[in-house]
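User: Quick sanity check before I run a bigger batch. Here is a single chain. Can you write out its predicted 3D structure?
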Amino acid sequence: MSLLRLCAFAKCLGRRGFLQTPAVRTSFADDCQLCSSLRNRTGRRQITGTAVHNQRTNVSFVFPKKEDVRKRLPEHSQLLDVLEARVHQLLSHVTDVPHAQVPFHRPPSSKNIILSGISPNKQPQKVTDKPKSKVKADAKSLTSPWKQRISQEKKTRLIQQQHLRNVKIDPSKIMSSVHHDIAHKTIFLTPKKTATSTKIMSKVKKVSDKNDAKAAIPQTATSTVTKGAGEVSKKLSKMEQKPSKNSTKETTEEAAKMEKPKTSLRQKLNQKTTATCPQEGARGSASVEVRHSVRAYLEACLFSGNIDTGHSFLLKLHRMEDRRKHLNTDIYNILMSGWAKKGSLNNVGQLFILLEEAALKPNLGSYSAALECMGRWVTCPSKVITRCLDQMKKEGLSVDDLFSQCVFHHDEKDMVLKAVHAVHPEYQPQIQQTTSQFSLPLVNDFYTQRENHQYPKLHLTQAELLAGFKRQLSMELACTVTINSVEAAKPLTENMAKMREHLNNLNNQWHKTLLKAFREKKMILVKTSTKYQSLYPYLCLLEDKDYVNMMIQSISTLLPTGLTLTAYASSLGTRVYTKYCVLRKQQNQMVQKLGNIYKRYAQLLANNTQTYTTLPREHWCQLETEQNLGLRMEHGAEKGWPDVVTLKLGSYLVDLIVKNLKIRSDILNPAEKQALIPILYHMYTFRNFQQIGFIKPHPILTQILSDAVETTLTFDSYIMPMLCPPVPWTSASCGAYLLTPTNLTRAVDGGKQQDELEKCPNLDAVLDSLNTLGNCAWRINKPVLDIIVSVFNDRGSDKLNIPPPLSEAPQIPNLSFQDPANKAAERNKMRDEANNARKKRNEMHSLRMEALYKLSIANCLRDEIFWLPHNMDFRGRTYPCPPYFNHLGGDMARSILVFAEGKPLGPKGLDWLKLHLINLTGVKKKSSLQERLEYANTIMEDILDSADNPLDGRKWWMTADEPWQALACCMEIAKAVRSPDPTQFISGFPIHQDGSCNGLQHYAALGRDVIGATSVNLVPCDVPQDVYIGVAHQVEALRAEDAQTGLKVAQVLEGFISRKVVKQTVMTVVYGVTRYGGRLQIQKRLEEIDEFPKEYVWEASSYLVRLVFSALKEMFTGTRKIQVNSPLQKINLHMHDINDKPDTVKQKNAFPPNFIHSLDSTHMMLTALHCNSAGLTFVSVHDCFWTHAYTVDMMNKVCREQFVNLHSQPILQELSESLLEKYCTELQSETYIKLKQHLAEVPETGNFDLHQVKESTYFFS
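Assistant: Done. Predicted structure follows.
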């Protein structure tokens, strides 16, 4: 990397300030004239007090313009004398102690040394001119002020060496590197070569390099070197090997005094270097967070055009040892890339020097920036490029690696290729696509044996897919979308019109107020733009009006109950980040790249193109490789903003809203006293004994928003389903939306989990399963949607789970606490009534708005085909990315979603529609499939009446457990039976197959528990087994025994133990519910029974939860052994990182359910992969699998085979080995020895034959 030191030194002779960029590059000829002017004593010294002083550099010297040179000729001789005296003084510090023993240290800012010791605000003292023969005299020949100043500097430095804390740097290596650069990497030009110029240049070089190494602040200048560089190198070597006698004599006394302290210092430094020398990859979580923040800040600076600010910021971090150790090469590469675009090879070289000083190695990104910069330098010598390529080769990096692994924007690739062609004209990049190696037995056969795979195509043409792509791209570029509200159909009243006028006027006024306040505050922040964690760069990313629009949009969506400050600020910060990402991709020309790839990718999915044998992920990666566009790596380079940045920025914007936006107090009631009041106010509340900041809207604003009944709704673009197939997931950072950033994992602390996920060697099977779910095309069931909207706009319906409007909510009573007639008990009762009414109104408003969003989005998509991209949580459970409208919603949302592609029902399709309808009603759960089918045939009149007259007929569908889905199924059955041939009827209606208490199914399979497996339908039976009824019977038997012994609570419970009472506890006990939680569940069920004596509720619930746990222990012996004897249930793990110390109680309760959830998600993903390879449409809601009626039998077969395949693996043994490897390596304490023993004990399993699952009809049904 030392090849670029040459540029860093040479440009020091022509740059005015450290970070100042010249308007025009200085030519080599001009530089030679400057050198000549110095040689002829026609140059003068100039101290700038701006950039140099602000950066607190230790050395500052420049040569001014020609017109300035002529002004002060008498002072030129002083400059030369000062320089030479300074050189002697600096050399004395190099020669009095061996180089290996001299640590470099940057003095504190209060004692900066500026070349000759003069402060920036002082003028140089006059120095008596001396003959040339006495140039080598020591500092005694100087005038008194100079001598005193230099002597004082030496004493200060010796004192400072006693307090060194920096890591020791070997100056011999630095000097040898400089010598090597000058001797071998200098571009020789044609200026006149004189002894004087060579002598001065060598000494100035010595001053510059020594101070650069000491302060770690390279100087900025143009690329200028002289033909006499060989002599310069020789001169430097002599100066290093043979110090002058005078300089040696001058420091002998001080060196002797400091001998003991320096010896002690060297020992301490050696210890510290060994212990704390920064090594990349071993930073810990704190380093990750620091790097994350620094990366975000630097990228924001570059995007907003503040590269100088970013450079200053990085230099400050580099100077601080406690900060520098957290940095890595990629951080420095960010600025290298920015300077490379400007063609500043000098600054790129300086960053290479900083890398060396930070004990970091340059990587492909570093060399890419250097070569790009050389490509932009029109006259870059081939020797410089050759040495760069040679250095890459020494580091084990190839040029092909550079082109295949680096991300290129704009013309960066062309510039790098231009630089390479300068020395290798025939070179062409050879990029090879990496092939994944599948070592997991679960998926090895799936990827290696594809002869019979039939990947499904969509029912759309390529042109239709590309039209959807253009519309989706337009929506994401805008970042927001405005749709019509389903409430717009309401008749316009006088009050609504008045409120809408008020709201429109307020929005215009608020926009002006916020824009003015934002700009004023932004100007104040300019002064802090170089401070650590300054917000200024983040406020320059977008146009000012964009920030204001986001703030005003956030006000309209704020709930009357308010939001926590954290949630509100995070929402605003995330919106800024999303818009910034989209703009950055536009700036990087990624939109054009994306369009080129997607056009060819659509051929894989379209029904009018050839058939491919590759999966979407593989096809996308292949297209990227062929076109060498690097979208996947470009997505991967986006690490997002850390939470602290998002919250800080969001809080800043919230503060602007709270402090600046007002509303008149009399706007609704002219009788009120007129005053300006804030529309939002900041308050505090307590949750879980913690004080939490809250942002609430003023009631006046809430009333205006409610009464206005806006006809449109504005959402962020990622809220909406996609209008084209999602970008396939190809890595943990690339997939889903076209431009909107999306992580593969979703979690509160998603950053750390995302980082860990990106380290996983092979995620292909996970990514392919998510792509399968996301590629399912949907459409709206318009008849059902219209019925729901009519009920929604007609006061809703509690029975049908359609939230009513606020006009139906209870009114909050007016309290008169001051009335002396009201006693304390009455006042308390009035207060409780008011609180309950207020709580009810808030709940109704939340539910109403949620339903409004879902129905409005559905109505907007009523004539569209759309897609739902998926991601997952840390357990592997999958979720659609659009949050409001998706198939994971409740009964209402599911009822209006159908597959966009229909398939013939076939011979069994109609029967599956009928069975699905009976399952939705909640009746006949204990009956066989044949009995359910017969029951469906007996109620066909009710089914057809429900389809024909949903709101005016018998309304049979309203009695179902899932009424809206039941109505949709009734309509589908009616259309099928009335068709000429039901077997040929094209149906897109999804049929559900639900697992029978899926968590217990996995537990029973893990423990090979025969009794437990039978209870959850892993064993073939004639009728479905209901584990909840089994537990209820077992609990009843235990209760009867206690009742005979005279236990009062057992006698009271006689006749009240049912399936409903125990179901929730049984269902959640496998997911880690505690006895306390189970008691609350049972208590709630008992309270719903009117006949049960209320005075026994608490005692009875405590008694029953104990019996439920006892019954489960008897029924699932293997299961309980796995769960209760899990090592994490007994041993408290003491993590080494105190910042990540876990809550041991939560860990004990969370591990078993999370582990089981990971198993059910694995089962789902395996099923998705194999269904996709068989040509089936497949989606899931966790343990509920959906497909067409025609393919239910095929999906059931795949589902059972993959369950057996999963549990045939040594899961518990692998879990034990994984935990032992993670927590018990090289630990010898008694606690960890005990932990190791527990983790090594794999529970014994029972005798259940797992292959019986393949024949079990009711395993999933």
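Residues 460 and 606 are 6 Å apart (CA to CA).

User: Great, the batch can go ahead then.
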